[in-house]
# Entry
Amino acid sequence: MSDIDLNLQIWRQKKTDSPGSFQTYALDKISTEMSFLEMLDVLNEKLTKEGLDPVAFDHDCREGICGMCGTVVNGVAHGPEKEVTLCQLHMRNFQNGDTLVIEPFRSRAFPIRKDLLVDRSAFDRIIQSGGYVSVNTGGTPDGNAIPIPAPTAELAMDAAACIGCGACVASCPNGAAMLFTSAKVSQLCLLPQGQTERHQRALNMVETMDKEGFGNCSNERECEAVCPKSISIRNIARLNREYLKAVLSEG
Amino acid sequence: MELNSQIPSGALSEKWDNHKFNSKLVNPANRRKYKIIVVGTGLAGASASATLAEQGYQVQTFCIQDSPRRAHSIAAQGGINAAKCYQTDGDSVQRLFYDTIKGGDFRSREANVYRLAQVSNSIIDQCVAQGVPFAREYGGTMANRSFGGAQVSRTFYARGQTGQQLLLGAYSALSRQIHKGQVTMYNRREMMEVVLVDGRARGIVTRNIITGEIEKYTADMVLLATGGYGNAYFLSTNAMASNVTAAWRAHKKGAGFANPSFVQIHPTCIPVHGDYQSKLTLMSESLRNDGRVWVPKKVGDKRHPNDIPDADRDYYLEKKYPSFGNLVPRDVASRNAKEQCDLGKGVGSTQLAVYLDFADAIKRDGQETIMKKYGNLFQMYEKITDSSPLKEPMMIYPAVHYTMGGLWVDYNLMTTIPGLFALGECNFSDHGANRLGASALMQGLADGYFVISTSVANYLGTNSLRAVSTSDDAFNEAEKEVEGRINKLLKNSAGGPAGKVTVDEIHKEIGKLLWDNCGMARNKEGLESALAKLPAIKEKFWNKVYIPGDTKEINQSLERAGRVADFLEFAEIMVRDALAREESCGCHLREESQTEENEAKRDDENFSHVSVWEHKGDGAEPIMHKEQLVFENVTPSQRSYK
# Structure
């Protein structure tokens, strides 16, 4: 355990339509045991006591599952450590004297609301357009009625692990939401329960994705590299197949 | 305050069916005429919103996060119980009922708990049909694991992310209804007030977190699914935004608050390591299936855990509770960890930790099998602590995790305010004085998918409600109250921060007071001193808190200040409740009431009741009412897990 001094450059922006800029803050004696968000808490306490406006950032569960947190740190979404969300990133990944450039997830489809806080409701709208099995409450068959091979369930679970944080979009040079969309399409097309609507689902979700202003996939693999849940781009290949099959069969 | 639990007549196993038959219905064509507000989108709120919308009601749903998918149910790890008996190991609805009521130390209602066990199986079927990727055996059938307080394997799971998968299932059902226009979804809204018209809940006032606008919404009934109040302690496993505000606002408007001192302290959390710490991280109870809990036998044994031979280790749970071993209920495991640390046998730099060791399990089953079961938990642990559970034992310590107490509700889940219902963790109904692992998910989804629609139809079918509008006096008054409170919070901020305190400083102070005096072990003296200290902290908060920024914009300090203000008021009934309950039961250990073996000693003669608090106005002492618990089907016994 040790303490480090940091130089922070943080994106400050008052509102969606106001101009933003980087502001520099010196922050000393940060314990390397702290999480990244605890470091921001310390900064905000300091700014508050100095009569300055604290940095707005999204966060909630602080254990890597709610998907609410996320900024770009030195050019990498969720920072330098692999397979973690920002709240799981710990300060032991940084050295004394480091400069950290902290900015929001940037995408045409994710308008900045304040500082590091963005609006990702476009993701909700993608799910709303078809990311479900259309089943009402009640009257469903016994859980064991349809056997699902363990490897299939595991593969579906790999895709279902997506937390909807948006790091994939922020890292893609095209601002594509393919990894996010393909994770849900994959989960449901792998499972027997998702078969009935699989074609319509792929068509609707891709259409919404385009309408929301997300870009196209050109296999840059940046999304997979930053995904805190290691969602594989194989899911994107699966989505492409699903989409193609859907276009051919549904027109 | 009248407490009519509305428990249906008939034999225990027939009550729910009788109740459904005797409840009024609303014709499908008429349902669209009714508007229902649901606050919260965790398991209970999302499932209730989706189900009611599917049935044809107009639903307006509110959540505090940027998306309904982020509610804190998502963080539940281990699993969900159901009485499927897929393992043919002797499980049944009756046994799930008994385990739950015994686990709660006989401080919950028989009828509610039985209903919970009855609908548990339908929850699993529902979630499978939604495409929740539960763990499967190689033959394709559903896998189970064991949890504390049960001797059967009835817990269904999706790796260590069961809460996430169940919540995403409910979120997808909700999303489908949003798409259809049956649910209007309001993200980033904080409920600030419930509005009563003619004594009935008819709407809410919210603050739009993005714009700061105060907004008013009307409805025919209001459902709260706003979770628990564990963050009163500042440090807990709850998400940062989890709060008591919605429940507290309802309480101040007349909703009784039941058993506020019943707080579950979860035994397996990552220990505290610094005063900058913002939250504690839970390590799923499922780890106790294979992990063995121990401390060094000798006080002050500073050797690395791997260098301490078996003979010098004290596997205290296995020794003390041979039949349940490491899988004793949470309250028992937590208290025993505290006891070991109090004896000076705690490990780690703070000596407030015990070991949870997987070495034997890895030797027995192989690393691959263990990683398949707990891989993501091990990874989570390593990311935080920089130590691999594959190489050395985990260090764990109890932390505030779940609140069994909550708004008092009758069998219909209605609070003492007509038209105001409470679902999931925010009510008190099913877990008594201690919740068993994997039962929170079960209760949240039971309430939302399978219970509330009967209550909604019955309420709407038996009451004629007049039209209300947001321009009615009641709404304008509530709006004024909310604005007044915000202005009061901001009144110190004009002069700058010099000589002031921050919101977090006060939150930490109240949190420590509660942890020290109203935590794992409680006594009269400590509770009385906490009660005496509360007013000064409250006064400091209101006279000195400094909140930067404006109200009509994103202001996260202001959001937190509002929640802390309510925690400060709420803490009083929490401590009073702990003080009034002069017995030990479940999570609530009064040091004055222990057996010779230091187990919680209940006093059924005097305390076999739910304590329900009534607000009598700011500054006035709250009044406690009792709902006597009646046990016709089980005989309360001293819990033994030996």
In short: Chain A touches chain B through 80 residues (CB under 8 Å).
